[in-house]
Amino acid sequence: MRSYGQYCSVAKALDVIGDRWTLLIVRELLLQGPCRYTDLRGALPGIATNMLADRLRELEAAGLVRREEAEPPVATTLFHLTDAGADLSPIVTALGAWGVRYMAEPAENDEFRNHWFAFPASLFLHDREPEGPPIAIELRTTGRPAVIEVADGAVSTRLGTTPSPDLVLSGSPNLILGLLSARLSPDRAREAGLEIKGDAGVLERLTG
C-alpha cells in the first residue's frame, strides 16, 4: 500500500481506500453483507483474481475487513466489514449520489448487477405516505430480479421476486433508473422500450 506521505486526514484516508477496486469491494460488502471470495469475484466484473486477493489483504491489514470461517454446511471463508469498514457507508453513498450525473447513458461495455439498484433506490425514492399500504416493485433486467419494498416510510431493496408486485419494470437498467429517478415519465420510458406492468401510479408516492 503506497502512501501520499502527507499529515492530512484526507491523505491518510486515501492511503487506505484510494487504490483501484478498494471502495467497490467495500460497496459489495455493504450491499450484500458477508461474502465468499467467489461472491465478490462475481460482483466485481473486470477484477483479476490476484488483484482481489491483494485488495482484501490490504483491507484486512487496515482493519476494515475481517475473515471468518463459516460453519458447515457452508464451510468456506466469509469476508465481513469491521465497524471501521462499515463507517464508510455514508462515504460510498455520497459517492453514488455524486456519480449519478455520469449515468445518463451507459458505456457500451458497462456491466450491471441487480443488487446495485439499492443505491439509486435509496437516493431517488422516498415514501411520502408512510401510513399508506406497503408497495412492492419488481425490477427485471439481466440476471436475478430485484424487488423494491416500501412499508412504514422505509424503502429497501433485495434480490429475488415477490408474489404480488404492485408494479413490474422490465428492460435495461438505464431505462429503469430513468423512471425511478423521474428523469423519464412512464410514457417516455415505454416509448424507449421499458415494459411496465401494473400500477405505475405508485411511483408518484415515491418520486412525486
Topology:
Elements: H1 9-17, H2 22-32, H3 37-43, H4 49-61, E1 65-69, E2 77-81, H5 83-86, H6 89-99, H7 118-124, E3 135-140, E4 146-151, E5 154-159, E6 167-170, H8 173-180, H9 186-192, E7 195-198, H10 202-207
Parallel strand pairs: 3-6
Antiparallel strand pairs: 1-2, 3-4, 4-5, 6-7
Q: Which fold name is given in CATH as the topology of the largest domain?
A: Arc Repressor Mutant, subunit A
Please tell me the total number of domains.
2
| N-to-C series of helices and strands | HHHHEEHHHEEEEHHEH
What Rg do the Cα atoms give? 19 Å
The residue ranges in which pLDDT falls below 50 over 5 or more consecutive positions are none
Helix content: 25-40%
In CATH's first tier, which class of the largest domain applies? Mainly Alpha
Total strand count, please? Answer: 7
**What is the mean predicted local confidence, pLDDT?**
93
**Computed structural class:** alpha+beta
Q: What is the global morphology?
A: globular
CATH architecture of the largest domain: Orthogonal Bundle
What is the number of helices? Answer: 10
How much strand?
15-25%
